[in-house]
Amino acid sequence: MTLSAVRSSTYSPQDQAEELTQLCKALADGLRLEILRLLRISSFGVLEICRILDIRQSALSHHLKILATAGLATTRREGNTIFYRRPLLSSDDPHYGFKRSAFEAIDGIPLAETLLERLNLVQQERSEQSLQFFTRHADKFREKQGLVAEHSQYMSSLSDLLHSLKLPGHQRMMEVGPGQGELLAGLASQFKQVIALDNAAEMLNQARATVADAGVDNIDFILGDTRKALELQLNCDLMLFDMVLHHLPAPHEAFQHARTLLNEAGVLLIVDLCRHDQDWVRESCGDLWLGFDLDDMNDWADQAGLQAAQVVYLGLRNGFQIQMCAFRKPAQARAV
Fold first, then answer.
1. Angle 46-53/113-137 helices, nearest 10 degrees?
2. What structural domains and CATH numbers belong to the chain?
3. Rounded to an integer, what distance in angstroms lies between the CA atom of residue 276 and that of residue 302?
4. What share of the chain in percent tops pLDDT 70?
5. Which of 275, 328, 228 is nearest to 43 (CA)?
6. Cα–chain center distance at 82
7. How far is CA 197 from the centre of its chain?
8. How many C-beta atoms surround the C-beta of residue 100 within 10 A?
9. Which helix or strand (DSSP H or E) is residue 83 part of?
10. For position 244, what pLDDT does the model report?
11. What is the helix (H) or strand (E) element at residue 321, kind and residue range?
12. Do 32 and 43 contact (CB within 8 A), yes or no?
């Protein structure tokens, strides 16, 4: 019996004891604890974990199977690749308290510097893959984006959502990955200052051209990612990721960085695809991830100290579904 089995009213104390034994055995290994610390950071494919931990695939598969059987790791298919991650803990799990305490203890042990260096290389390669795509296809961005979703299909819903959020300051907002800049002119009329942040110079130039045609002058264009924004201390009232999260090498970092960059009561707004299985978007659109589950984003937000505020769903004719998710930074929030 595994911890992923469906529980019922007949779930006996003996069953619970057997599962607790599985948990303890799974945790009684230094390498498996290292895997769990790594999965706290992000989800990884088997070959990526092998590179980071410098371990043979056959040996890693053995340890991953033990963790999965004990309910300490779970999988997600992204096209032809299986990614491992830590499970979302549920309060109705009889071992919820034990798992949560175990994860907290595990996370208190930092990864070795050598592992962090290999981890950074893996994430840099993911980022470079995405950057190369946009460098090659900047002139065809609108055409490729249109294969999945066009701004016209959800602009009115996005505008209504922005209005309903009742942002406190309206002084400064940041759009991360503005594409060709279709949203920037409208945002510039709502905020005193707008920051367009993109790590692809070609895309940033296209956004500049779009804004020039609109005749607005309160937009700053910055080459870089959210790490650059942290370096420059670009605090804001709203951070917008419009169809960008699925291109990021480590999506959870968007929430962590927003926690630092947002002013009190500021909002992180994610517009992205719901989880799907249309793998062709990887090659055609440069997607690293096949959409997201709301539970995952809520978990990332919770870890970053952000509160779920509102979510809007919009179905598209081609089988995709868009989710617009707002997360608010509490006033006088505690440091993370």
1. 140
2. 13-111 (1.10.10.10), 144-328 (3.40.50.150)
3. 24
4. 88
5. 275
6. 17
7. 17
8. 13
9. strand 81-85
10. 93
11. strand 321-328
12. no
Q: Specify the residue for token string 């992923």.
A: 4
pLDDT (tens digit per residue) in 50-70: 999 999 999 999 999 999 999
pTM of the predicted model, to two decimals?
A: 0.72
- What is the arrangement of strands in the sheet containing 172-176, beginning at the earlier edge strand? 219-223, 193-198, 172-176, 236-242, 262-273, 321-328, 307-315
Q: Could you tell me if 141 and 203 are in contact, meaning their C-beta atoms sit under 8 angstroms apart?
A: yes
User: Would you list the DSSP string of 229-295?
Assistant: HHHHT--EEEEEEES-GGG-SSTHHHHHHHHHHEEEEEEEEEEEEBS---TTHHHHH--SS--B-HH
Is the per-residue pLDDT at 321 higher than 80?
yes
Gyration radius (Cα) of the chain, Å:
21
Q: Distance between CA atoms of 61 and 38, rounded to whole angstroms? A: 15
> Long-range contacts of range 77-85, CB-CB < 8 Å, 24 or more positions apart?
77/277, 78/279, 78/289, 78/290, 79/279, 79/282, 79/290, 80/279, 81/45, 82/45, 82/46, 83/43, 83/44, 83/45, 84/39, 84/43, 84/44, 84/45, 84/46, 84/49, 85/39, 85/42, 85/43, 85/44
